[in-house]
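Quick log. Single chain, no ligands specified.
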Amino acid sequence: MNFTSTKYLYLFLFSLFLQLSFAQSSDNPWKFSIGVNVIDTYPTGDNSPYLGNAGDLFEDFFNVGDHWNLGGPSASLSRYLGAGFSLGLQGGINTIEKINGVSNPSISSYSADAFFNFYPKNSGILRPFLKAGYGWSNFDISGDLIDGRLLSRDVSKTVLGGIGLDIMFDSAFGITIQTEYRNAFEIFGTNYLQHQIGVSYQFGSGDIDKDGVPDKKDECPEVPGLKEYNGCPDTDGDTVIDKKDTCPEIPGKVEYNGCPDTDGDGIADPDDACVEQPGTPEMNGCPDTDGDGVSDDTDTCIDEVGPLENNGCPWPDADNDGVPDKDDLCKDEAGAVVNNGCPELSGEIMKTINDRGAKINFAANSDKILGKKMRNILLEIRDILVENPKGNLLIEGYASADGSEDFNNELSVRRAETVRDLLVSLGISEARLQVKGLGEKAPIADNESPEGRAENRRVQFIYKY
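-> predicted structure:
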């Protein structure tokens, strides 16, 4: 091997060392290769003495020292098109020194071609390919050499076909080994084999975030990520990538867009107003202890049913008539809902009725009402009730301390019934009137005097809700 060939071999080895020293991106469409080439002049023409015997042909083909010419460099640039095909340009320089075992003066040679490669398998460590192309070859020859075996007159058009193999160190760098047969169109062209070995580097697709995923496949091209997530990060490691993770720094579940559900109520924490208390979707993840439709987090009275407008607390009702004070026109006097919290027989009406009733007297040990005066009093009470048809009355009967307590209790009931019956006879519905006997209870005068006992023999009217 002469100095020129040795120089090119060292250049190839140095280039290989430099290129394998850098980490590169993956899945790039462009491929650049540089290396050395070997021109094989066996056989070189129809008059080769080796074509007569097949055994000699095989033996001498592998006697590379007779017909291999190591030179260089060779280089190629190609772009992957898809479906296993790539298109490229290549060129090589060599020096021919041996032709079928005969040493000759050095002959300069070069070639330049366009080619297609087809990769049946375009991934993995080993990537075989088929090659076809068209170009030009040149042998710088002056005169006839070796019985006319090299008859090339400078440049000749050439078609080529061959096979090759890419051995990948990673997704960008590898070694390319290939051999091709070059057939000249012109009658004075030279047919020969060309073997090449070199390093290859694939490039062309950027990787802005330097995460090893090319930008064209990187769903997060400006943020370093992981290959299994197409270049996107997953900061909390919950298998939900950050750009789809509502809680990117807190591990969560896929069904909650990467957020946790601390209380296990089926509502993700960001949407849960009560993160540590199981609740319902209707209450935004909070419970409603008293079932009043106001969630506990806003309910001031979580154990009492109340409206939302009063923060879940019941409205106050000072007179306990079922009408809240805010709607009660008679807050201190129990009344009816239909009458806005006021009695249907107002306090003023009841005072008038009782003023009349106080004039109704009974004889000792009697439940009889006698006289036109008493009847007129009942007529006045009747008229008041007719004017106020929705009011109901409780008629309480009383007795003085004369006689036994049991007798007085019974007597007081009969006195109340007497007043009721008379009012009914005057046209008042019995449904509006109830009776009750209280006997000697609640005297309004001294039972030790005849006058006092006479006052205690009475009836009293109470508004009935």
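Residues 1-26, 44-59, 143-152 have pLDDT under 50 and may be disordered.
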